[in-house]
């Protein structure tokens, strides 16, 4: 195992919009399993989002970039294959400005949870066992989770409300080793990175990944699907599209995430208490 002096070990790069009800759970879960820092590109622009993220930003856990400057431009909305949009511009910005800050960097969304399989509570040991002079990237398999029969939003955490998924992974996302990472300028993808040319190294393919996966809570309930899935105008929001996306995503009962629920609930309670205390002191 190779060691270097990077500031962080594992970081996320995330674009978000219309995710305010889910941000705290997503952040607290990933802090619990070993994410060191979050580079968040704020396409929401609301005071609510700023208020939610403020304590994490003040604690140095996140770096938030206001990313509404592309609204209404050619970079906004649906794009064709290999066409640049504001999400891709954010990934390029992060690679250029922060690529040397962390050992591992991953593109991931707020509806995606990086999950340590096999009962582990941390992602870090498996990653530290890898040779960073050899592995340039890890293609982590992603499983879509369905609506569990919910048509309206449950009054529970995402991870305890949605416990049924598709039988086999339908996609993957790439975690990049920063030693091999380029400035990502030539990669218009939310799933893959661009790497330095003529730098030998190999990928761990999705089918060969051991102990890591992504839980993708894309549809959730019909109510949530119709409220959230409006970032890209290319995504249908009607019930027919919801049923189409949900098809096959309730095939397997998977309750592995429930082992994190007590700790996440306590972390969220502590965070709310701290915020209340801070407001009262002011």
Q: Give me the CATH architecture, please.
A: Alpha-Beta Complex
What share of residues are in beta strands? 15-25%
Number of strands: 11
The CATH class:
Alpha Beta
List the secondary-structure elements in sequence, H or E. Answer: EHEHEHEEHEHEEEEHHEH
Q: Work out the radius of gyration.
A: 19 Å
Q: How many structural units, i.e. domains?
A: 1
Multimerization status: single chain
Class by SSE composition: alpha/beta
Low-confidence stretches: none
The residue-averaged pLDDT reads 91
Molecular shape? globular
Distance between the termini: 48 Å
Explain this structure to me?
The chain has 282 residues and is of the alpha/beta class. It has a single domain (8-281), classed as Spore Coat Polysaccharide Biosynthesis Protein SpsA, Chain A, CATH 3.90.550. Helices cover 29% and strands 21% of the residues. The chain contains eight helices and eleven strands. It has helices at residues 23-33, 47-58, 86-98, 124-128, 158-161, 222-228, 239-246, 261-281, and strands at 8-16, 37-42, 62-66, 102-107, 112-116, 135-144, 164-165, 171-177, 202-204, 212-216, 252-253. The strands form two sheets. Strands 1, 2, 3, 4, 5, 6, 8, 9 and 10 form a nine-stranded mixed β-sheet that branches. It has a two-stranded antiparallel ribbon with strand order 7-11. Strand 2, helix 2 (47-58) and strand 3 (62-66) form a beta-alpha-beta unit. Helix 1 crosses helix 8 (261-281). The longest helix has 21 residues, at 261-281. The radius of gyration is 19 Å and the shape is globular. The relative contact order is 0.18.
């Amino acid at each position: 195992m190779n060691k270097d002096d990077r500031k962080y070990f594992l970081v996320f790069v995330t674009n978000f919009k219309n995710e305010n009800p889910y941000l705290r759970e997503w952040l607290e879960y990933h802090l619990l399993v070993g994410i060191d820092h979050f580079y968040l590109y704020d396409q929401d622009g609301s005071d609510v989002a700023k208020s939610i993220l403020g304590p994490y930003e003040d604690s140095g856990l996140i770096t938030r970039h206001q990313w509404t400057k592309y609204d209404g431009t050619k970079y906004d909305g649906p794009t064709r294959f290999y066409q640049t949009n504001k999400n891709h511009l954010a990934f390029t910005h992060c690679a250029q400005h922060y690529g040397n800050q962390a050992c591992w960097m991953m593109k991931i969304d707020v509806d995606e949870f990086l999950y340590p399989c096999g009962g582990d509570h941390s992602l870090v040991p498996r990653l530290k066992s890898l040779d960073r002079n050899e592995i340039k990237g890890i293609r982590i398999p992603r499983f879509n989770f369905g609506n569990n029969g919910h048509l309206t939003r449950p009054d529970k955490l995402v991870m305890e409300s949605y416990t049924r998924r598709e039988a086999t992974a339908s996609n993957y996302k790439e975690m990049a080793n920063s030693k091999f990472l380029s400035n990502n300028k030539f990669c218009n993808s939310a799933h893959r990175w661009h790497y330095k040319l003529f730098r030998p190294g190999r990928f761990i393919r999705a089918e060969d990944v051991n102990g890591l996966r992504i839980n993708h809570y894309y549809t959730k309930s019909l109510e949530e699907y119709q409220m959230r899935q409006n970032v890209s105008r290319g995504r249908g929001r009607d019930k027919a599209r919801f049923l189409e996306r949900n098809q096959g995503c309730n095939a397997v009962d998977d309750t592995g995430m429930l082992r994190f629920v007590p700790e996440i609930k306590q972390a969220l309670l502590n965070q709310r208490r701290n915020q209340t205390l801070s407001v009262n002191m002011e």
